[in-house]
Design a protein that fits this description.
Strand content: 5-15%
Oligomer: single chain
Bound molecules: glutamine
Order of helices and strands: HEEEHHHHHHHEHHHEEEHH
Number of helices: 13
Radius of gyration: 19 Å
Structural class: alpha+beta
Shape: globular
Helix content: 40-55%
Strand order of the largest sheet: 2-1-7-6-5
Largest sheet: 5 strands, antiparallel
């Protein structure tokens, strides 16, 4: 494993981008501003369960918006595709993650990756009370990760007491009848899902589980029904990087999701899950080092979904990308 081309490349990328100090720590969630800007982990887990990592892959941090893709899958399982589509659209926006816009005609939030859509999605999670809903959600994340997880109380309370913009969005959606009246419960669950503690390797296993059609390649447990994987990946592809999604699709060409604590995941279907963790963010709220690393991994291994050169070379027996 240590001498594999993937391992060598991850080590090189880590060395190359560790000196990059561009970007800022988020300060709108006070607890996140305490992160160490030097933290930097890169992890790849293949769809058959091989793990490669470089740097700080054990450092715990809150999952933040990366949770949205997985909770969307859970909402689809709980309510079915047709119902979920009546509550949350699938249209990318050119807006930032915290945009307050909803679709003028349908009144739905545009998609499940922007905060408004994510809060509406979270409000669809089933359970008889807040404890059951949180436990079901933790179970879902645990199936993807393969170990027990917990919510970081300091980040949760930090966000809960300062998340006025998210609260305003929930009220707006309640006004339009798009979410049920218990918005404080929905918001708490949303802030809790964002505050689940993971490390970079966990994220790579989660991404690899999607790459493996919903089965965790290490534990072999099914994390999500296979029929919903394409919906999750489509939304990640078109909306996962918010108002950078088009540029990301053009250059990296993989379904992905970023979070304000500095994590990014990318999914190469049938091949691998990629995760990078580094807290300094660009103006879109994505990890600066994370973007660079994903770009280089995609290029190096020909992972762009529409890079057809590898297939043609294989078919023609050339054995190389032209
Ligand atoms: N919890 C954060 C928020 O709601 C998630 C945002 C993100 O990671 N982009 O603002």
């Amino acid at each position: 494993m240590l001498n594999s081309p993937i391992q060598t490349f991850l080590d090189e990328l880590h060395l190359k981008f560790q000196p990059l100090k561009e970007g800022v720590l988020p300060n709108y969630i006070p607890e996140l501003a305490k992160a160490n800007p030097d933290w930097f982990g890169i992890c790849v887990v293949t769809a058959d369960g091989q793990i490669y990592q470089a740097g700080d892959c054990d450092q715990l941090f809150t999952i933040q918006s990366i949770s949205k893709a997985f909770v969307y899958g859970m909402a689809l399982e709980d309510r079915g595709r047709d119902y979920v589509l009546t509550r949350v659209g699938v249209e990318p926006t050119g807006d930032a993650f915290n945009s307050i816009q909803v679709d003028e005609v349908s009144k739905r939030p545009y998609n499940p990756m922007v905060n408004a859509g994510a809060i509406a999605t979270t409000s669809l999670i089933k359970g008889i009370d807040p404890t059951e809903r949180l436990n079901r959600m933790l179970d879902m994340f645990q199936r993807y990760v393969g170990r027990d997880l917990f919510v970081d109380m300091s980040v949760f309370t930090s966000e809960r007491s300062t998340g006025h913009r998210n609260r305003a969005m929930a009220h707006l959606m309640l006004n339009f009848g798009m979410i049920e009246p218990n918005i404080d419960e929905a918001l708490d669950l949303y802030f809790q899902q964002c505050s689940v503690m993971v490390n970079c390797q966990d994220l790579a296993v989660m991404a690899a589980t999607l790459a493996n059609c919903g089965i965790n390649p290490i534990s072999k447990a099914r994390a999500v029904e296979s029929r919903y994987v394409r919906n999750i990946l489509t939304i990640m592809y078109t909306c996962g990087m918010y108002n950078f999604a088009g540029e990301w699709a053009y250059t990296v060409g993989l379904p992905a999701k970023s979070g304000v604590s500095g994590g990014i995941i990318a999914v190469a279907p049938h091949k691998m899950g990629i995760a990078v963790f580094s807290p300094l963010l660009d103006s879109h709220g994505s990890s600066v080092r994370g973007l660079k690393v994903c770009e280089e991994i995609s290029e190096q291994f020909g992972l762009h979904l529409f890079d057809l050169r590898a297939d043609i070379a294989r078919e023609e027996g050339l054995g190389a990308r032209g």
